[in-house]
Specification:
The protein is α+β, with helices and mostly antiparallel strands and 454 residues long. Helix content is 43%, strand content 20%. The chain is built from 14 helices and 16 strands.
Length: 454
């Protein structure tokens, strides 16, 4: 086997010898894997667009309201007080990505990443429709500015801008919800001018990424590709070239690879998969389809490029499980089980009672001492909850600001109250008191805080 040419590692794949941008004109893919990826992308796009409109008991199915520190995930509401539970969920998700990458490489990037979905399945398809396949696009870009070129470029970029604006608004739905979004678009621009400017800036960013920066997000910006260097091993299933079967190249010897370079022409990041696993490879399978077409045309079996591991190519069989996979799986199972436990065991309400800042105590004529408290109650259920608060640690009188403590489903109640305790019952200048929160006569939560006195 000849020594491999590793000069491709001397510079980024999308830079030329002078350090300038090398535009990639990828050939339009076709084949069974591309069809599968297209269908899968439809479901991903449908999920991205439809989820903000799905409601459970009148509430969003998913809402990431960062401004209000309120997160709804699959119908379950999380507030700032649930940071620990959200952290467990995030750690579980990160560990799942690590386990998935160890086992199947960068499959996420080629099949489910929004960057790839929108670039390859939306913007690129529009480009193919208006400007044609790679040869026509290259000829159009390198040729003079004719009326045909102006018409095609203006049409393409006008559609790109419209899609970028639609993407921004869809993205916004995940963070503000459909009600606020409908209010925003129905009001005059002058009433929400700052928000309108932000929308234009984000839309401009999307337009720039998908019109000009493109695959460089995957090859130069995204850190996920660089993670492969420490996560992949010889048993990871990735898009692989069977060098035992394909070498030596040229079609004049026993090697099946005829060095037609079709796998390179169809690659959206411009790599040569025959050089082995590279961080630029997003496992999109375009090279698999193209190579299978060539193999069929020359009367060879498909699969010269396929999903396989280095171990599978060398030994003829795959075994994705090893000590590292099992270790990650066990840790993920434990972590996710703990997340489920904390989610199911969390209280229906979350109460915070604190003395009002800046106030100490008040001495009253009836021989009582009073403290002023702020109370905040978060309802984490889908039911309206009528609540009452009582002092359960000793005798005392509570005067609440307002007449009721009815907390709507998935809402927050905030108020103030004054606690009066007889001076005779206070043994120190800082007494621990315990409150009970009742709903329909049932104690559902207790909260301890301090009561200060002379």
């Amino acid at each position: 086997m000849p020594e491999p040419d590793i000069s491709f590692r001397d510079r980024p794949i999308n830079m030329n010898e002078k350090g300038g941008r090398k535009w990639i004109y990828a050939k339009k893919p076709k084949g069974k894997w591309y069809r599968r990826r297209t269908v899968f992308s439809w479901f991903v796009l449908l999920f991205f667009i439809a989820v903000p409109f799905i409601r459970v008991n009148g509430h969003p199915f998913v809402l990431l309201d960062i401004a209000s520190r309120k997160f709804i995930l699959f119908g379950a509401i999380f507030w700032a007080q649930d940071t620990f539970i959200l952290a467990l969920l995030m750690l579980s998700f990160v560990l799942f990505i690590v386990l998935f990458t160890v086992t199947f490489g960068r499959l996420w990037c080629g099949w489910a990443c929004p960057q790839t979905i929108f670039l390859e399945m939306v913007f690129r398809k529009i480009e193919y429709l208006i400007e044609g396949d790679f040869r026509k696009r290259y000829k159009l870009d390198s040729g003079p500015w004719t009326s045909e070129k102006v018409l095609k470029k203006v049409s393409k970029h006008a559609i790109f801008i419209a899609i970028s604006i639609a993407m921004t608004n869809t993205f916004l739905l995940w963070f503000i919800g459909t009600e606020k979004w409908f209010i925003l678009i129905s009001e005059p621009i002058r009433d929400n001018f700052s928000g309108f400017i932000v929308m234009l800036i984000v839309s401009g960013f999307f337009y720039w990424v998908y019109s000009f920066f493109r695959e460089q997000i995957c090859t130069m910006v995204c850190p996920y590709g660089r993670m492969q260097g420490v996560l992949l091993d010889s048993k990871s299933i990735v898009v692989s070239y069977d060098y035992f079967r394909g070498e030596p190249r040229g079609g004049k010897t026993d090697g099946d690879c005829i060095d037609c370079r079709q796998c390179i022409s169809v690659c959206p990041t411009g790599i040569d998969i025959r050089n082995g696993t590279q961080l630029e490879c997003i496992n999109c399978t375009a090279c698999i389809d193209q190579c299978d077409i060539v193999m069929k045309n020359i009367g060879k079996d498909p699969g010269l490029i396929r999903f396989d591991s280095d171990h599978g190519i060398k030994h003829g069989h795959n075994s994705i499980w090893n000590a590292r996979n099992r270790a990650y799986s066990v840790v993920l199972l434990v972590l996710f089980s703990f997340f489920i436990y904390t989610l199911l065991s969390r209280p229906d309400i979350e109460t915070t009672i604190l003395r009002t800042p800046g106030l100490l105590y008040q001495e009253n004529a009836d021989n009582t001492i009073s403290n002023v408290y702020n109370i905040k109650i978060v309802n984490k259920t889908h039911e309206n909850m009528p609540l009452e608060i009582h002092l359960i640690s000793q005798e005392g009188l509570i005067k609440m600001a307002g007449s009721s403590m009815d907390v709507k489903d998935q809402a927050m109640f905030e108020s103030m109250f004054i606690l009066f305790i007889s001076r005779d019952l206070l043994k120190s200048d800082n007494t621990e008191v315990e409150f009970g929160i009742y709903s329909n006569g049932e104690l559902i939560e207790t909260y301890k805080t301090s009561f200060v006195s002379p």
